[in-house]
């Protein structure tokens, strides 16, 4: 099942009982607005880490009683990131949320070999996108973490994407397009050759839960007009659920372009570690902080205490 917008996806994925989230550097208006809304909707139980004085002040300005919240004072952002990760490691929280810090700083704490979180073969980032010009939600991977994924990492990305989206209510096979410059296979271009191999693996039953097309260009993956003009034939033509990009740069450029010029709305979730991580731009609205929290809660396992 595909979803027309992010709100519909969030509603379909609503948790039955609240999950505990550790929020690193929580002292930001939009962060706390998203947290408070999520808590009142029964999605989360927050653990707020950061500048206690600022957190208390923002909550009070929102008409909230700070005494209703568990707040851990932290002197700096790396301490906040460390403490948030430790809450998950100790079973005191179910997942993480990025507050007022860079994604790289939080991931540094997550990936620390001695104090970080256990993880699978890869850590990867899903950008869940709502574009007015496209008929349904689109998922992009990986636009934030792996600079140049190897073939083996791309295989793992597909497995993680498929598992995650099925947890969010997608039924049947997920339609995944392996993005290249053109749809005609060119074995001299590594990304194109790998796309052919990924499609062959999928057809052989080695990547279940999905239908893979590759190589495929972005226009043929998304545009009915382009498909008609080129006479392109594929079960995924102008109907993909997921675009798998060949590099972080190509994915990031696409996200920024559609955000700036196509009125796209983007919610980010990082998966592959012991728990999901709610990640949105520091400039994102409180509504999309809320959406990211809701989706991360939906795919997290219950660990945290009440």
Q: Can you give keywords for this protein?
A:
eleven-stranded mixed sheet; Isopropylmalate Dehydrogenase; about 40% helix; about 300 residues
Report on the architecture of this protein.
The protein has helices at 6-12, 29-40, 52-61, 77-89, 103-111, 151-167, 190-203, 218-222, 224-230, 248-261, 286-299; strands at 19-24, 44-50, 70-73, 95-98, 119-130, 138-141, 174-179, 210-216, 242-244, 265-273, 277-279. By secondary structure, it is of the alpha/beta class. It folds into two domains: 1-118 and 274-306, Rossmann fold (3-Layer(aba) Sandwich), CATH 3.40.50.10950; 120-272, 3-Layer(aba) Sandwich (Isopropylmalate Dehydrogenase). An eleven-stranded mixed β-sheet has the order 3-2-1-4-11-10-5-6-9-7-8, with helices on both faces. α3 (52-61) links the parallel β2 (44-50) and β3 (70-73). The radius of gyration is 20 Å and the shape is elongated. The two termini are 33 Å apart. The model has no long low-confidence stretch (mean pLDDT 94).
């Amino acid at each position: 099942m595909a979803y027309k917008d992010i709100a519909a996806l969030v509603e379909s994925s609503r948790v039955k009982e609240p999950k505990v989230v550790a929020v690193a550097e929580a002292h930001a208006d939009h962060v706390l607005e998203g947290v408070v809304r999520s808590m009142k909707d029964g999605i989360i139980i927050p653990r707020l880490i950061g500048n206690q004085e600022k957190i208390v002040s923002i909550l009070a300005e929102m008409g909230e009683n700070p005494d209703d919240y568990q707040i851990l004072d932290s002197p700096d952002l790396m301490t906040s990131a460390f403490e948030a990760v430790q809450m998950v490691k100790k079973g005191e929280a179910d997942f993480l949320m990025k507050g007022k810090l860079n994604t790289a700083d939080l991931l540094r704490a997550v990936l620390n070999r001695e104090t970080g979180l256990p993880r699978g073969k890869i850590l990867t980032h899903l950008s869940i996108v709502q574009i007015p010009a496209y008929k349904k939600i689109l998922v992009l991977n990986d636009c934030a973490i792996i600079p140049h994924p190897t073939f083996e990492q791309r295989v793992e990305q597909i497995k993680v994407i498929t598992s995650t989206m099925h947890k969010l209510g997608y039924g049947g096979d997920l339609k995944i397009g392996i993005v290249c410059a053109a749809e005609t296979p060119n074995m001299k271009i590594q990304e194109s050759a790998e796309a052919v191999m990924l499609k062959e693996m999928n057809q052989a039953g080695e990547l279940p839960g999905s239908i893979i097309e590759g190589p495929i260009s972005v226009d043929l993956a998304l545009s009915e007009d382009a498909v008609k003009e080129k006479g392109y034939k594929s079960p995924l033509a102008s109907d993909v659920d997921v675009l798998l990009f060949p590099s972080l740069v190509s994915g990031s450029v696409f996200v920024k372009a559609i955000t700036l010029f196509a009125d796209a709305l983007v919610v980010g979730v990082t998966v592959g570690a012991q728990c999901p991580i709610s990640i949105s731009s520091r400039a994102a609205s409180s509504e999309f902080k809320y959406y990211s929290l809701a989706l991360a809660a939906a795919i997290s396992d219950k660990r945290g205490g009440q």
